[in-house]
Amino acid sequence: MLSENMLQQKYLTMYKNVAVVATGISVKGAPAELQHINCSNATTSVNFLKLYNKATAPTVGTDVPVMTLAVPPNTTNGFLDIDLADPAYFSVGLGIAVTTTAADNGSTAPATGSVVNLLYR
Question: What is the pLDDT of residues 63-80, one digit of tens each?
């Protein structure tokens, strides 16, 4: 976990969404370096966080994510926490969505309960 002091030193931007669903969201409409991913899942099924290299909101089910991460279910163990020592670079922009299927064309929205926190520059 990054301390507040580390955040200030690295000049990271914080993004939080407490109701991410399958509708695509544009986090940053310009090149981005993703440093940290924290996602929780309070539902009873695995959810999938999809990351897109797009300057606009992705069309979930049509646009192909560059990365898909499984977020385990359950309020006590249902989280994903990844600190990227070498940031993931999104050359066009950073978009996200959460679905119930891992397939690139999967577009089914999960039940409410997904929270996504990102640190990027």
Answer: 999 999 999 988 666 789
**pLDDT per residue over 9-45, tens digit each?**
558 999 999 877 778 999 999 999 999 999 998 888 8
CA distance 66 to 7: 25
Strands 32-41, 79-90: pairing is: antiparallel
- Alpha-carbon distance 48 to 76, whole Å? 18
What CA–CA distance (Å, rounded) separates 107 from 24? 10
Q: Please, where are the H alpha helices in 1-121?
A: 4-10
Rounded CA-CA distance 97/81 in Å is 17
- Domains of the chain are 4-120 (2.60.120)
pTM of the model: 0.87
